[in-house]
Amino acid sequence: MITAAKRTSQVALHMGIAYALAYAVTGSAVFSGLAVLVEPVINVLLLPLHEGAWAHWRGKAGDARSRYMTLAAEKLSQTGLHAGVAFGVMYVATGSAALGGIAALLEPVCNVLVLPLHDRLWDSLERAVQAKLPLLSRPIAT
Predict the structure, then answer these.
(1) pLDDT band, residue 97 (cuts 50/70/90)
(2) Does the predicted TM-score (pTM) go above 0.85?
(3) In this structure, are residues 89 and 38 in contact, taking their beta carbons and an 8 Å threshold?
(4) Rounded CA gap, 84 and 16, in Å?
């Protein structure tokens, strides 16, 4: 139950960061809401194609070093894909390559800075709940 709540909270935080950034750049609450919905849809549509192509390349990697290098290249490529989608969405919204570039750089930076704090908070909440569970599982004295 806590894991599901944590994941839902992560998605909400990620979308909140994207919304705040889009709003700061465009000044439009409506567009920012649309961008927060459109960007993940584009990523969801492109990611299986990306993963399929990289699965093909991973299959060709022979030794451990090649597999490691292929995995590293895949992660860099995946980061580029996400940044490219963020850039594209913001560029279409504003017509500015500079603002698109800012969005493509700032969103991941904000997520990298904020999500570890989020995860620490949820981890401490989970530890607190687990510490209280033994008390909850005891029979009630009458």
Answers:
(1) very high
(2) no
(3) yes
(4) 19
Check if the beta carbon of residue 115 is closer than 8 Å to that of residue 124.
Answer: no
In the chain, the amino acid numbered 39 is: E
Q: Which of helix, strand or coil describes residue 142?
A: coil
Helix 29-60 vs helix 2-26: angle between axes, to the nearest 10 degrees? 120
Backbone angles phi, psi at 96, to 5 degrees: -115, 120
Q: Of the candidates 80, 96, 108, which has an alpha carbon nearest to the alpha carbon of residue 21?
A: 108
Contact between 93 and 22 under an 8 Å Cβ cutoff? The reply is yes
Q: Rounded to whole angstroms, what are the CA distances from 60 to 39, 56, 74, 78?
A: 32, 7, 13, 19
pLDDT in tens, 3-16: 788 888 888 888 88
